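Hi there,

I know you've been waiting on this one. I reran it after we fixed the sequence typo, so this is the corrected version. Both the input and the resulting structure follow.
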Amino acid sequence: MNKTLFTALGTAAITTSSLLAGDFDTPIATETPAACKLSGSLSLDLNSHFISYGFDVWAAGNSLTEAPTFNPSVSLDYALTDSVTLSTGFWLDVNDNPSGSDFKVQETDVWFGVSYTSGIMTYSATYQNWQYAGDSEQILDLGVSFDTFLSPSITIHKRLTEGASGGFDGTFLVLGAEHSFDLSDKFSLTIPIALGVALDEFHTTESGYGYASIGLQGSYAINDFTSFNAGVTFYDTDADVVGNADDQFLTANVGLSFSF
């Protein structure tokens, strides 16, 4: 699953996704408890590509119509205090892209995480389980994001088990940022950017520069709980590190999101 660097990389995503973490310097027990709050969202997205850390999973390449995927997802957040939040959710990849396959769920991703906010910094740790190709891949995402100009973020994405990756259990480092413009009370534009570097064997036996991306994502608020989202993202990837047939390509996405 690519959250395309969470929000920085998905409508802006990492969502992200997006899914970051770090050390908790201030013990949770010292925080002043706040009223527990449950929030969540349901997203129904259609994507031209499935991009996982720069890798074009279904080899759509330069085509926006050759290998589309339907990706519904649900996320839940539970605020324990003003600083500590628990999160969980799932994401599905539904398509008929494999040769001879019916239109069905090809991958199921679930996650559980915790985040801690102090000042402008939010640390988070998220455990993920990706089930695909008859195997299960386990992942830990660690990182930090900054609530300041360009919303910069750093994510360390570590495979704990190989799963169906082809024997790789490496680590990806992703740097992200984004900037949003409110064009009206209902419509906003976001420009997310990301840079991904393989620290060791992740997609292939090579390490180093993996990919860079820049997108333009629009969001229109239908009402207080529903929004329509659409956008495009351009990717530049390195064939030796990521393994794509096409190093450069454009992706597109459209969808509805419901929040509570």
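Quick highlight: The radius of gyration is 18 Å.

Best,
R. S.
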